[in-house]
What does this fold into?
Amino acid sequence: MSTKCDQILLLLRDGSLSVSQIAEKLGTNSNNARVYLGRLKEEGRVREASKIGREKVYALGSPARQAALATPDPAIQAENENLRAKLRFMNEFFKANHKYLAGNPEIKQYVRSHEEFDEVEKLCQA
It folds into this structure.
């Protein structure tokens, strides 16, 4: 399947969109969007949800909607992996230096005075 079709499926994860809205988000014209939507409709992955005037509004078909919702957004996956890498680094750093860090009152005060350390602690507890 083309990348544009995949992008349409991702767009429709959040709800119905008109042909012109889809075209705008894809950076293409409505005719091209209709071609991609036609392919997806033939496969049963999207359906015509309604009409606004003469313009059709599309939504994911039921099985496709479930599959799309189960597929994580690549940008979110990348951000999550980036955060995991930072947490792994911090964990290793603290393991290697915990005796020094725990015994240094200036470091304790610094950690207590910065909100980002509270956020890391919350993440580690979750």
